[in-house]
Amino acid sequence: MSTSFFRIEMRRKRDVIIARQCARHIAHMLGYEPADVTAIAATVFALARNCLAQAGRVTLHFHVRRNVLQVVPEVPEAASIPLEASSLWSGWRLEKPLPQHEAALSIEDLAWSLQTMSEFVSNNLFEEVEQQNDDLLNTLRELRACQNELARLKAHMHGAAA
Fold it and tell me: What is the domain range of residue 87?
């Protein structure tokens, strides 16, 4: 069963920013971990940007199908897609299994929340860049912690082997 709960029509570059913001909120409300929230927002941004560049106009549909979040672009019939891109077009989508734990909201409540939220989503580019910066800094901190743990484990293994 597929549950479509949100769509975003994009005609301008600022719509791509809004798609990224909405994707981040959707991922958060579905209960994804912070790193996954960042990855989903970044992937939706790339998907939206590429689709908009190729077709000039696109609608992104957010679905949940068999416990998988899907973001699927739809291009109007009148849009002309270059021949070299048309063979790739059908494969452009995001699919990410839902987290194993219970989501903060049901899909129905999520749809209502997103509709309400879309009226208040900021078009302020500075706020979005600020959020991206925070996401990047958090990811770098996590990477550094993993690198330190790996170095500690390697040192421990070398000490045990000696």
Answer: 2-123
